[in-house]
Amino acid sequence: MGSRPARMPGCSLPAMRRPEDPRPGRPRRATLLAAARRLLLAAPRRGLAAAQRLAGATARPAPTWRRAAREASDVRSLRDALQRFADAPTELLVGPEPPDLPLSGWRFDWLRRYRVPVLWLAAAATFLPTVEYMFDNHRIADFLVPPLAVLVVLPLGLAGRTPLRAWRLQMLVAAAVVVVAPPLSREGPPWPPPVILVAIYVIYAVAVRVGLHLLVGIWLVTGATVVFSFVATGARATTSGEVYATLALLTVGFAYCYLIGTRRRLQHELVEGRQQQEEEQARSALLEERARIARELHDIVAHHMSVIAVRTETAPFRIPELPEAAKDDLAETSAIAREALTEMRRLLGVLRGADASVEHAPQPGMGGLDALLAAVRGAGLAVDLRVVGAARPLPSGVELSAYRIIQEALSNTLRHAPGASATVEVGYEPDRLWLRVRNEAPPGRPDHARPAQPGQGIIGMRERAAMLGGHLATGATPQGGYLVEAVLPLDGRDHATEPR
Description:
The protein has helices spanning 28-55, 65-94, 115-137, 145-158, 163-180, 193-207, 212-232, 239-318, 324-352, 369-378, 396-416, 456-467; strands spanning 382-388, 421-428, 432-439, 471-476, 482-489. By secondary structure, the chain is α+β, with helices and mostly antiparallel strands. Strand 4 (471-476) and strand 5 (482-489) form a beta hairpin. It is elongated, with a radius of gyration of 41 Å. The model is unreliable at 1-29, 39-63 and 496-500 (pLDDT under 50).
């Protein structure tokens, strides 16, 4: 146990060896004595461990990296929360405005764009009633009433864009009104009704937007302003009860507004999370289909490269009169082709992945279309084939893509419209191949429709058509069926999208 273990030749991992095996360069007797000494020393420890187990002693599990990371995260979260609460006073005084609430998806969300002008109109409409009320019910010099009324209604207009700034001004106005313009009557709240109405909306506007650390500070400052206002107007028998009732209403209002804002933000994050998940799933499906198409095209390209390699190697034997320079060029071309084949095998291993199985069957083409239709008919789908134009051999990539598109369209018909009939049309033209797969509405379900979101099969068909420079169109028919149309150019150039 004291020396380093031996290493396997050509391997970086230590060789596995039993502890009782003799080590090289050491006498067998000394090895046996050392093993006996270790057994004698380990016996007391084993006996103590057995006694502890019998006594019911349980050892504390050793800390793992998961537990350590969780504890560190908890400590970091607590430190961040304490730091935010420590920074709350500064943010309340000079901090930036909180972000606006996200849209809720309500049908009247479009009214938000008119919120600011509506609030300013409401502030202007509240100005004259505020002036009249203060003239009649407050002790204040006449020349101070208009500017004070402006300060009373100003937070309502500011709350549309800058609710935190409106709240700061609202607290100053609420504290100043009871000092500059005390009420004539000592019954009821110490503020005029316009101050209370404006304060209700300002508190709502700021409470639904700020975080919890700022909300606690806003609640404390608002509560202190309430206590100061009641005390400044003079204590009476019902003052304490009114203060408690006002603070209770403030607490409930703050909590309710905060819950509204939190719920709106969580709903928005949930919707965004679902959208991101759908985008990731669509991207993953697209990449899977592209990898599948690349794996299938590998066989075609590898076949062409093999033909090039064989023909260049056998050219000197088939054409003996070739000059030496041409033979050297052909040999170099054959070596390049074989090297390209090797690199393509490596590329195929990367595209296949660790879990994919090796496919030994040849890639299908238009020659296997009759067998495909026979298999589909055996599955219970009545399908007809119509060929327009003279059938002829096509490029291997075009035949493979056309076969896969027809196969996927018929599979979708079996899956989404069981019992319906289908028609497959194949059109051969000089510069392109067009396909049309149409199925009728399922019997007994004329309103049956495909899902609105395209599935992985439609994504694969679209990628196969785009790879060849063609187009694919899918959609429901007026009769309740479904139509898949594809145009595959034979030369890789973009042609008209509609069959002629």
